[in-house]
Amino acid sequence: MLHRLRALLPEAVRFGFVGGAGFVVDVGLFNLLRYAGEPGLLEHKPLTAKALSVGVATCVTYLGNRHWTWRHTQRSGARREVSLFFLFNGLAMLIALACLAFSHYWLDLRSPLADNISANGIGLALGTAFRFWTYRTFVFRPQIVEIHVPTPKT
Hints:
This protein has one domain. The chain is an all-alpha fold. The protein has four helices and no strands. It has helices spanning 2-35, 46-69, 78-106, 112-139. The N and C termini lie far apart (39 Å). 75% of the residues lie in helices and 0% in strands.
């Protein structure tokens, strides 16, 4: 078990760096759309702002994950890989949107701090765990090498 965790660590660190870049893009764009200007372009549309910021961040993280985190994995077809990546990222985005919608509309916590904690704190943490598992399991799968051992002749 410990050996498996040690082998996973470099991959998780690279995923973390790529995710960090995506986080900067996501949070920066979300806040620009909501609060830059008077009024902000999407000041009264937090879910739209979040969906757009996640979409742009998804493009950044796909490139980083494909060309750095899982560069050692064989491609299983670009269309399949991109489709699954965006599908799973979309599902993870729904996790962040659900957290934001719950705090913003259900709990009526509408400050910039509350929106950022729910969408870019709690929602992002839950979504990141989901992304790492799905990308590793379904999108950037390691190539399976079959070893054929000849059977001894008797």
